[in-house]
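Project standup — Tuesday

K.O.: blocked on the structure for the chain from last sprint. Re-posting the sequence here as requested.
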Amino acid sequence: MIYIGTKCQLEQVVTNELTAAAVGSGLLPVFGTPYMIGLMENAAQSVLGMFLEEGQGSVGTELNVKHTAPTPVGMKVWTEAEIIAVSENGKMVDFIVKAWDEKGLIGQGTHTRAIINNERFLAKCNAKLDA
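H.V.: unblocked you, prediction finished:
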């Protein structure tokens, strides 16, 4: 059973490799939005992983996030994902995701993940190569 309200927090220090300029989402040496979103998704999959059975995984299906403040290289950032809803069939899980740096909130939004059978999912994906 997946418990509403379960949270996971992850942190890292912004390096030059994690900037908008490095990923190509912008030209400035500030924490890149794709990296913030990646850290949010990582927190969500980590908290959901506590409830999954052997052979199960999860994939992101929807993300609605605002990146509201810049973070310089060298500053610590952290994200939190909180489970807020589970579909009736137990396959879709909704999260609130937030990110902070040492000065305050830098982003927030919602995220949905689908629980999958890893083997079936990869087989379906790889079948595209046979077409």
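K.O.: great, moving the ticket to review. Residues 17 and 41 are 19 Å apart (CA to CA). The chain has a mean pLDDT of 98.
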